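Appendix B.2, paired examples.
Example (i):
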Amino acid sequence: MSDFPRWKYALVALAMLFGIVYALPNAFIPVPAVQVTANRGAAPIDQALRQKVVAALAKQKVVAGEVVVNGDHLLATFANTDVQRSGSDAIKALLGDGYTVAFKLQSTVPGWLRAIGARSMPLGLDLQGGVHFLMQVDQNDVIDKQESSYADDIRGLLRQKNIRYESVTRNAARGQGIAVILRSEADRTAASNDIANEYIDLNVANGPSTGNRYVLNVTVKPEKLRALALGTIKQNLGTLRNRINALGVSEPLIQQQGENHIVVDLAGVQDPAEAKKLIGTVATLQYRPGIGYAGDAQAQEAARTGNIPPNANLYYMRGSHQPVLVSKRVIVTGNELVNASSGTDQQSGTPEVSVTLNATGARKMLDFTNANVGKPMAVVYVERVTETKMVNGKEVRTPKVTESVINDATIQGAFGKQFQTTGLGSQKEASDLALLLKGGAFAAPVDIVEERVIGPSLGQDNIDKGLKAVTLGLALVLLAAALYYKLFGLVADIALVFNLVILVAVMSLIGVTLTMPGIAGIVLTLGMAIDANVLICERIREELRNGSTPHASIRAGYEKAWATILDANVTHLIAALALTTMGTGAIKGFGVTLMIGILTSLFTSVTLTHAFTALIHGHRKLKTLSV
């Protein structure tokens, strides 16, 4: 046993040190806190506002741990959730609607641990509490967009083929397709053939004819509509994931439910209003030709009389509220953005959003700006929110779309793929808009149809039960090993404890969210980990019965048991990998914990116990073994 390599001793020592240091943050319990951020148009967060908050809390006799300004938000910590709630009420009464006041749990991990990347494991919705949303995707909007797009394409095709037509319009009923009115039977036949050949996803049929009006009915095939619906759900799932990740919400659960619903669980978010602000906002930009400039005579007249040109919309400028006429034609939209970042304009010092378009959007923007240098172009900010009202004791949710112009400027020169948008009220607004644009636009609008807050008291009850399960399971396994295998059992117990420590450290380092299924995975890992030591001890006993010396028995026990241990753990690892890659939610959480636990068990059960055994027996003359 004296030939046990020194580098393995060093490896074991480093692994134990790593486990202790990176598992340590989980011993620091986060404290309830209230976070305050400024809304659009409100005064920024500064020390003067902090003093007002401190005074308001003192006046209401609410004891706060600390009240500090961190960047663009203010943070106040409290001793428990009851005081947190009282503090939130006092702050809301002081600041009014100009600020968003949200609950959160503030980490208490010391700075020196955070400096080396050590952090506590985030807790899942079942342990930490949080908010649950059920969101409905507006599939009718998909049909509207698709039929409008096909109508534009058909007009272009008919012009390209020199086929005379009177009109191409969508039918009044949604989903009933497009009516193409032509001037002769020959034109209708030619149009029918060309449309059928060019667009294989469309059904084309002759409609009733009166006089010189020959109708062609064009509808989207049902299988194409189903594919669009499925694609819409998938794109909205991706957009939600990107948006929530960009806005800093940790480990969300986002998954499809049924044909047109999405479930979103956000652990640790205690304020549903703040969570809805993060995920429910549907904001995008539209770049449109300007009819004139903000506040000019034509716009003032249209605002006063309501006589708006048929090719224009009347909007108002953000901030100044001056009327401005904007063309109905859309050059590019947020759907054609591939990247967005906030910054400051070097000349004016005002906030800006730098935009990068995809190839299609860049080509359209370049073509338009080339042909319209010296003419106005408006940037329209479109935001969709859902208003909730109580009607006859029932919640009625109504989607509301607000549109305003944030920039109305003259095109100074041609540009295409990259450019900047200015006119935003603050750097925070520019940053939020950039994050929403970068996260992607929804393929179809989504409305929150159900929301539920899961209180932290439920989570604490689950945590207590989980800790009792882990403690009881670990204690029974330790006791059984020590009684049955004596000294070797005690060595196995030490390895089992460090297996738990290293497992928690790895999960904390890579940011695995701990849930009740995760705790079940930890308990199962501890139960399976002792199996390897049972195999080793039984091999050593067998070698002793065969007449081998104690040192030879130990060496042979580890060598001969290794192949069996590896085979058993590889099969477990394959099962855990399948759960991790194919499962979602609770199943995936269980699989991740089990997979990490198997890998740590392989190390602690073999290498760590071998190191301790070598330290105890390596340089001693042995007549027998306590096994």
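Example (ii):
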Amino acid sequence: MNEKVTLTAGDTATEELLSTALCDEQQFHSPIPQTDSLDEAINQSASALLERQDDNGWWLFDLEADATIPSEYMLLQHFMGTVNAERESRLVDYLHSRQMADGSWPLYHAGPGNISATVKAYFALKVAGEDPASDIMKKARQWVLNHGGAENANVFTRFTLATFGQAPWRIVPCMPMEIIFLPHWFFFSLSKVSYWSRCVIVPLLILYAKRPAFKLKPKQNITELFLSPPESLKNLDKFVPGRPLKNAFLVLDWLLKRIEPLSPNWLRQRAIDRAEAWTRKHMRGEGGIGGIYPAMANAVTALKILGYDKNDADMRRGLRAIEDLVIDEGIESFVQPCVSPVWDTCLSITALSEAELNIDHRSFKSAVNWLFDKQVFVRGDWNSKAMELDSGGWAFQFENDFYPDVDDTASVVMAMLRIDVHHNPDKLRRIAQAVNWVIGMQNSDGGWGAFDIDNHYEYLNNIPFADHGALVDPSTADLTGRCIEMLAMLGYDRSFAPIARGLDFLQRDQHESGAWFGRWGVNYIYGTWSVLIALGLLEEDPSQPYIRKSINWLKRIQNSDGGWGEDCNSYDDPDLKGKGESTPSQTAWALLGMMAVGEVGSDNVERGLHYLLRHQETNGAWQESLYTGTGFPRVFYLRYHGYSHYFPLWALSVYRNVRQGLPTKQESVRKNGPVELGPLPVLQI
């Protein structure tokens, strides 16, 4: 959609703001902004965003992870016998461009080297034919050896090494096929782990039972990355002082490795059959199992090991879903961990609605139609904890019916409300179904997780398989804030039981600094924004000590250039909380959070607006190479390429509206409400 959009004109105050920004160039060490008014900045940004919309109604921006995903993809193509030489060459170029000066590959842009990412990247390059004598390979090899060798890599990397015959299967934690039979009441069961873990583990059980060892050419082996001969390796997981539960699980793992071979063949085969049936059931549809690359790769690998080829319908769909994740841009290719069209679309609607785009604009109409086509009415895995709860949520991807999520659903509902979709009776009924589902997904502690109810068995993060520390999906502040925000927008107040319970959770979950942890975005800035915007819409008194504490924290961490930034390493090092190079998206989050609780006239907010105005590019967007999205804290991060498009536009637009004395779109809906949803069945359960 190529069109220039003209939005509401600014007032004198906003013109004075820009003039101040121009004068402050030397103070903030930034280039002169390319726009000559706040209105023009908003118009340029909105026009650029509209141009990115697909004719079918959705927005979709690239989603980039680290070197592990393209590396795993390259290895998978060799395993499946489907190597495309031209694409492999482009993926090699991508890996070359992401290597650090010290020879390692990081988990996020400009981050420290990571042993697992570096081992996988080196392995993929060598299998693709990279000369081990090249500088790229020599530096990577030396870095790995200096950091404990390939035997120091994480569990998922060890699975890859074992699958390709680079190390014995005994180096991976024991995963008996028969655990698929374990009931929920047992201390471990597949129903107790998160959706993403479940989708990865079930096909992985088949791999562990069959223990393939794909034979590579001798020149493709990576024995040189190990400090000890790989064939001599046994138990790589060691006791950790002061971690009795973790150590107990290590003892159990060693015991299981001795017992597991004794399982009778008939029981093992029954378990394999059940795992295959579960995998196939969850592969149905076009989005691939779970909509995430690791699960997709494990699923097609498992089917191949069981003897199926590309003529198998599930195999064919699974391979196609994987190919849909590949991005070919310029001279490089990379592989996304998943796609984010629903998330990108609802946030684009949000930003454009605050920018005063007409609610009858054809862009909104096509986006609304597409979103309602994607509403999920399948009873997914979450239903095991809420048998009477009807579906009605949205997933993150184009298709992932078994796993709609609370975050996307709440955000879609709010986007719909912003553009008055609820005035259509048929659409209102669908919105009510979504709201009912979100309320039904609330956890017993008052918070919300992403995909399941009460998936809070955090002791399971101590099992050897869970060295990534993200086996479960407990309540988090960012998701709880989002759900309260949605309910407040509908007109509910703190007397509404789900909101009251959510507020109690948030106050218990607040850190001493005043910040809230961000599970799905980096990090405390993201979590604090998510909570403050909910509290502001709920009209909570900002003078309350706990709210004041969070506002003061945001003010303290503002950078000298006027922006806000936080490094991904804040998940590892608490001293880095709220510290990092300024980014457009994190600056927008801080601004939105502060403005929601009455800080629009503060010096901190105006300096933040200066930062965004100065850093906008001539195409209306902002550049952001740093990663501000979180997959799994400490082990997997995301660069949402859309974040620097819609979040700054949202923040600039809210600032302009509030300075003009106008309510935000959310406030308008709330004040004109409450939105009459009719009876919500979940409240009767």
